[in-house]
């Protein structure tokens, strides 16, 4: 048997994301057991069968051929020849997976597949009962958890990015129901193994959780590296380096936009402010903190699709901002509208250097750059952790960063009170770091996010 790492925990604790990162870093094979149960639920539901109908679910098992394949380094879930990897991450399938995983027959159906993979490879396997039932002899057992609210918030943001219409309340209800189902089922209920190490990720960043678990695995296994399946050790994979900014100098500030363009921009700005103040109870605070010139970075929390406009209305110089590339694939009218407001596409999660270089070009041209460090919208108004990208851009660009807090309760609707607060600029001197390494950037990110949080109340 190879090195086996069992990673258990409740739904939404981030097991899959974290397990993938750890597997990549240590050279292990990642086995997503939750995807296997989801694949059963997917097939059953696609056949029009209720996942609560035990007899019909069991009867359908001989019809299902489920496999895990690794294509270009990514795990794919194949059901009867169909790649269903992107179809099994909805709340409906989640609830269905919780139901079918409670059936002993379904667990037995997948049990041999899971153990066979573990015997042949150095693996990290995540699920609900890996350390207690599937791999009771695993060398390392981790129980990863987080509060129900934090888990629901993470899952909600993931679904939003995929365009799923589920509300936060629905996701939280799903999380709570799955927790109850998983801990109260008769067969292999969710519980922490006696020899498992608990890691609570509620107040930790993804990088911090990965670092902690990797250190636990390294200590438990004596620093052994993953094997390629025939017992030969793999070299530990090098961490991906930060994006290369060596050929991008700090932004040269001082360039002025065409005064005629600025005149018409501000004319339109005041018209839009007038219209929005009729529809909403819109107020701006801290406008004295907004520079009169351009080439500034505005870093804001993210509440709604209207946010770029709300921040823009408080600025005397036009803003540019990154927007996910999917938005540019909609109808021409919508695409033209967001381009008019300064949007340009970015491939999120891929280290899009072209988009980052465009950001610097916009700053060099005299425009401002608007960044939403959280990456996705917040459902409850609370400010998330933020991504390190904002710190990296600020450190290299050496432009003032103006924090912004967008405040309103619930959802946007007629006469809803909206307060947009602009904080005191963070000067380039405060943004300087000796080297743009992870620790320096985390500290800088914390400075920026704390400034935003202070404006949200």
CATH class of the largest domain: Alpha Beta
Per DSSP, the total helix count is: 16
- Strand elements, count: 15
Instruction: Name the CATH architecture of the largest domain.
Output: 3-Layer(aba) Sandwich
Roughly what fraction of the amino acids lie in strands?
15-25%
Describe this protein's structure.
By secondary structure, the protein is α/β, with parallel strands linked by helices. Helices cover 42% and strands 16% of the residues. The chain has a seven-stranded mixed beta sheet with strand order 9-15-14-10-13-11-12. It has a five-stranded parallel beta sheet with strand order 2-6-1-7-8, with helices on both faces. A hairpin with a 2-residue loop joins β4 and β5. The N and C termini lie far apart (54 Å).
Topology:
Elements: E1 4-8, H1 15-26, E2 29-32, H2 33-46, H3 54-60, E3 66-71, E4 74-79, E5 82-83, H4 91-100, H5 104-120, E6 123-127, H6 130-134, E7 140-145, H7 148-161, H8 168-184, E8 197-200, H9 206-221, H10 259-279, E9 281-285, E10 297-300, H11 307-312, E11 319-324, H12 332-340, E12 343-346, H13 353-364, E13 368-371, H14 389-397, E14 401-407, E15 417-422, H15 428-431, H16 438-454
Parallel strand pairs: 1-6, 1-7, 2-6, 7-8, 9-15, 10-13, 10-14, 11-12, 11-13
Antiparallel strand pairs: 3-4, 4-5, 14-15
């Amino acid at each position: 048997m190879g090195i086996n790492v069992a990673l258990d925990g409740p739904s939404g604790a981030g097991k899959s994301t974290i397990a993938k990162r750890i597997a990549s870093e240590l050279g292990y094979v990642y086995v997503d057991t939750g995807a296997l149960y989801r694949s059963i639920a997917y097939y059953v539901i696609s056949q029009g069968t209720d996942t609560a109908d035990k007899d019909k679910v069991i009867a359908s098992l001989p019809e299902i051929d489920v496999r895990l394949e690794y294509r270009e380094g990514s795990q794919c879930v194949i059901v009867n020849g169909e790649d269903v990897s992107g179809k099994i991450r909805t709340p409906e399938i989640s609830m269905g997976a919780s139901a079918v995983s409670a059936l002993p027959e379904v667990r037995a159906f997948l049990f041999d597949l899971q153990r066979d993979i573990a015997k042949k490879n150095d693996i990290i396997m995540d699920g609900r009962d890996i350390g207690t039932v599937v791999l009771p002899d695993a060398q390392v057992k981790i129980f990863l958890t987080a509060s129900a609210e934090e888990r629901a918030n993470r899952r909600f943001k993931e679904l939003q990015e995929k365009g799923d219409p589920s509300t936060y309340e629905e996701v939280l209800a799903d999380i709570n129901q799955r927790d109850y189902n998983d801990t109260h089922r008769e067969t292999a209920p969710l519980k922490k193994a006696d020899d498992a190490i608990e890691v609570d990720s509620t107040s930790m960043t993804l990088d911090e959780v990965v670092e902690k678990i990797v250190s636990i695995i390294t200590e438990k296994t004596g620093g052994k590296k993953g094997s390629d399946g025939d017992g030969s050790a793999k070299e530990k994979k090098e961490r991906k380096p930060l994006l290369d900014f060596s050929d991008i100098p700090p932004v040269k500030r001082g360039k002025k936009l065409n005064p005629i363009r600025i005149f018409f921009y501000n004319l339109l700005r005041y018209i839009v402010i007038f219209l929005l103040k009729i529809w909403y109870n819109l107020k701006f605070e801290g406008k004295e903190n907004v520079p009169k010139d351009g080439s500034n970075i505005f870093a804001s929390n993210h509440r709604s699709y209207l946010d770029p406009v709300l921040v823009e209305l408080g600025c005397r110089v036009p803003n540019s901002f990154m927007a996910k590339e999917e938005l540019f694939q909609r109808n021409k009218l919508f695409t033209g509208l967001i381009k008019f407001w300064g949007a340009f596409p970015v491939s999120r999660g891929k280290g899009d250097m072209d988009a980052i270089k465009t950001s610097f070009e916009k700053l060099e041209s005299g425009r401002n750059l608007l960044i939403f460090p959280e990456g996705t919208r917040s459902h409850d108004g609370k400010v998330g952790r933020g991504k390190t990208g904002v710190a990296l851009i600020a450190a290299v660009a050496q432009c003032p960063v103006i924090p912004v807090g967008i405040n309103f309760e619930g959802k946007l609707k007629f006469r809803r009170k909206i307060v947009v607060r602009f904080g005191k600029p963070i000067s380039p001197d405060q943004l300087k770091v000796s080297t743009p390494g992870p620790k320096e950037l985390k500290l800088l990110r914390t400075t920026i996010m704390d400034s935003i949080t202070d404006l949200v109340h």
